[in-house]
Amino acid sequence: MLEAVELTKHFKKNKVVDGLNLFIEKGETVGLLGPNGAGKSTTISMISTLISPTDGDVRLKNESVLRDPQPLREVLGVVPQEIALYTDLTAKENLEFFGRINHLKGGLLKERVTQVLDQIGLTERKNDIVKTFSGGMKRRLNIGVALLHEPEILIMDEPTVGIDPQSRSYILEQVKRLNQEKGMTIIYTSHYMEEVEFLCDRIYIMDKGHIIASGTKEEIKSILSSESTIVIKLEKMVPTFTEGLSAIPSVMNVTSSEKEIVMVIPKEQNLFNQVFQLAEDTGAVILSIDRKTPTLEDVFLHLTGRALRD
């Protein structure tokens, strides 16, 4: 349904996106993952025709949209990273304004505003000024704006950043429902791996302007099918202990956060004796050590060398 072909974007001498290829089939939810600076937002901006690529093409149903973006814009809804609302207007007034921009009017506009307010759970607050809303309510209204014209394709660029868990859960359930009940095609970027696990049929992992892996969740996880993940919890972090783990020849990846270390090793390896000896030598106090099957987060760390939120 929607395709990016050899998509490239330069900002002066900086190549932010470099020969990127991806496709989205009708009715699927596709996750676009990458650490900060990977080029996700630039890619989203090009796909949604907000900025023009330096090279490459964006195609809707096999037709380029670069010269005439209107066919794509008519079927596209975009939920940007930043809140894009008029905070001195009410929720209802915001929806009416953006509905008119999307050529809705009269009875149809009134009907869609009512439906969307119910959909995003803001009917009781429809006449309240938006600047009095919580972050989660603003996010929900931001999504409502994108849904007014009933788009076939919805692009959501980190729609749950900085909101409370209850609002986040509500938004995720609504996105799932849009896909399953309405058949809406969704492109979803996030800094939360569990969101992508919950929502997405397929995943593209992006780093330094390139797609470095793609496939279903199972296919992505199979990248580390011959490896195991070891999780070590410590009383306190000891830098020499972490450095010692990294120096073990068979250890493929080591990351640390607060009092936890995660390392990837070949599945057939048993390094427990070495780990405990190293802890004794460096004064590290191990609270627990656990071997587990690699997760999507582990694969991401393995491929990029960084956590998703880095």
TrEMBL record:
Residues 2-233 form the ABC transporter domain. GO terms for molecular function: ATP binding; ATP hydrolysis activity. This is Antibiotic ABC transporter ATP-binding protein. SUPFAM superfamilies: P-loop containing nucleoside triphosphate hydrolases. It comes from Rossellomorea marisflavi. Pfam families: ABC_tran. Keywords: ATP-binding, Nucleotide-binding. Gene3D superfamilies: P-loop containing nucleotide triphosphate hydrolases.
